[in-house]
Amino acid sequence: MQLRYSFRLYPEPGQARALSRAFGCARVVFNDAVRARRTAREQGLPYPSLGLLSKTLVTQAKKRPERSWLGEVCAVVLQQSLRDVESAYRGFFASLKGERKGPRVAVPRFKSRKDSRASIRFTANARWSVTASGRLNLPKIGPVKVAWSRPLPTTPSSVTVIKDSAGRYYASFVIDTDPDADAAVMPDSDQAIGIDLGLTHFAVLSDGTKISSPRFLRRAEKKLKKTQRELSRKQKDSKNRTNARLKVARAHAKVADARREFHHQLSTRLIRENQAIAVEDLAVNGLARTRLAKSVHDAGWSAFVNMLEYKAARYGRTFVKIGRFEPTSQTCSTCGHRDGPKPLHVRQWTCAACGTTHDRDTNAANNIKTAAGLAATACGAPVRPGLVPAQRQETGSHGIPTRRRAAKRHSTR
């Protein structure tokens, strides 16, 4: 498995200018490649190959006066920009043919100087290195100071330098992990849990544990409102407006970083303590179009579930995702009697068949665990999920519910 290890960079003023120059050159080459593809399509010609684009847009372009400044940056950066165009078009055509999973991908567009994020990539051919003093030595940029928060487990295959909307620089290393070493890190466990994600509590586990929702965006709304108001009063294209925009971006980045750190800590703890984990496939796109949209985005369910999924695959744990149409809040986890839909304000209910009083969220977590086939585990043995029945699909919905169906489904769970 390949993972990314990101570290904060602190370039000096001259290095920051060199990085800005490299970002600009990579953007120009990217736009030239997109323009060449569009011109070929308009003229009915075959798309130019990667080798032809490299020859005309990089090698020959450096010899022309209007593109001579391309020689001031590392050639590998320009070549990787062409590969990004190739990858973007490959993903677009795969999405057009229905071969790519996930939402439809649009045709590659031109990059702008005003884009909030910029990046360049150095492969092993660029001969970048980490110096003895711990600096990242990049070609035609120099040794850049790195804040190492942890050691690199193996030699990286490439490094991507990123500048985000808040003006921060990061170095993202691609690492090939060792499955045996990763499996040895995690302790043996025979526990299995079901997780019910929500808004009042971020997660409720099948063992009764309730994890409160930090609500990072809600807590920072007052500060975000103030910084956004200050930005709206600044004159366009002024230096004060640029500084105010950075202030807003840093405030939002602080919220996003805190949420990501919370997700990482919680997902790692759950993976460490349990051999098998089951969650529900929530219709986040549908819920994000209801009156609960801000709270849904603030919770970040999709990012958390993705972390659980890749960490389970990395450390040899079992991860199961059940269908979103499973009636987890309507079924008694003790006797299996289906008691019908309930409005959201009903947090506890008593089963009409067996008389058991259930907490709504804990009961749903237990039903998620049962539906995933994790109700019974063998001590010390790997937990294997049972067969999950095919879920009902709504005709014409393509798996994405409309606003009315999403609101109705959320209110009856």
Concise summary:
This protein has 413 residues and is of the alpha+beta class. 41% of the residues lie in helices and 17% in strands.
The tally of strands reads 14
Q: Low-confidence stretches at least 5 residues in length (pLDDT < 50)? A: 377-413
Summing up helix and strand content along with how strands pair, one would put the structural category as: alpha+beta
Largest sheet: 7 strands, antiparallel
Helix content: 40-55%
Total number of helices = 11
Assembly type of the chains comes to single chain
Mean pLDDT: 88
Give the CA-CA distance, first to last residue: 37 Å
Spatially, the strands of the biggest sheet line up as 2-6-7-1-5-4-3
Instruction: Assign an overall shape.
Output: elongated
The sequence of SSEs as H and E is EHHHEEEEEEHEEEHHEHHHEEEHH
Strand content: 15-25%
Our Rg estimate from Cα atoms comes to: 26 Å
Topology:
Blueprint: E1 2-10, H1 13-42, H2 50-59, H3 75-96, E2 118-123, E3 129-130, E4 136-138, E5 142-147, E6 158-163, E7 169-176, H4 179-185, E8 192-197, E9 201-205, E10 210-212, H5 216-232, H6 239-273, E11 276-280, H7 284-287, H8 293-299, H9 301-315, E12 318-322, E13 348-350, E14 357-359, H10 360-371, H11 403-412
Parallel strand pairs: 8-11, 11-12
Antiparallel strand pairs: 1-5, 1-7, 2-6, 3-4, 4-5, 6-7, 8-9, 9-10, 13-14
